[in-house]
Amino acid sequence: MTDFDTQRDGDATAGPDEGARDSGGWLLRRVPVNGLVFDLAERGAPDGRPVLLLHGFPQTHRAYDGLADSLAASGAPLRLLAPDQRGYSPGARPKDPSAYVLPALAADMVGLLDACGIEHVDVVGHDWGAMVGWYLAARHPDRVRTLTAVSVPHPAAFAAALGHSQQRKMSEYVYLFRDPEKAVRVLLEDDARRMRALYSPLPNSVIDMYLSVFSDPETLQGALNWYRAAKFGEGSSVPAVEAPTVYVWSTGDVAISRDAAELCVEHAAGPYRFVVLDGVSHWILDEAPDALAAVLPFPTASADGRGSS
Predict the structure, then answer these.
(1) How far apart are CA 59 and CA 204, in angstroms?
(2) Which of 57, 129, 156, 194 is packed most tightly, with the most Cβ within 10 A?
């Protein structure tokens, strides 16, 4: 997977950082979508098979550094697109919490694909990014070739699991996050001690990278608006996914129960694979990018046979 130098498509426009690369090797630009402006990071071949990478909370496109490195080593001709989603991109941060409902979040990504001139895409989503991925694949099946959902199961599976005591207990933190002003204060006080604890067991270097973004109260509150808008019980109305799907869950996840993970198969109407990573925390993208790359449901090998497929 060869990194490109410049890329302009459709209605994507240059921002002040056009052409700049961050320390993760991502080429940065800004893309207007439906009155908002998203920060988009890209790596790979400009004419490669497009892969949409959706981060969760509290992370950014940098959550995909490891996976991008793994895919680059394989030589696969892929074009990786990793947006900072609504609430995370400074130019896409509505004040109204109701603007963060799942249909709007998915519509952002459809608009982003349109702006980049992309018709079909493989989707990889972690945490909240997985929720958006499930919704995209279910409600916009003509745009999604394959889905890889990491950590978080289909919205209907999660809604059903909330009826079980274990998942209800594991989700108690949501009550705090639904009050963003209080959550910002609690998470950032005492040198962001509780915020740092969220990322355990990631190394301090990675935690510091994320805190350089989320120590800003406005940014953190924008990200928390996803929780404020969420109606988890409504997940039962999301249809089953027909696209080939891989769901990756880890035994060390403190937010998602095995019950929720095992219910996911009931909402896969097409080819489906359930992958369990033993001893890995919720932060699969950071801890096990090579293991994730090995189970992706789209070709990840170069023409000379390097990598996996």
Answers:
(1) 14
(2) 129
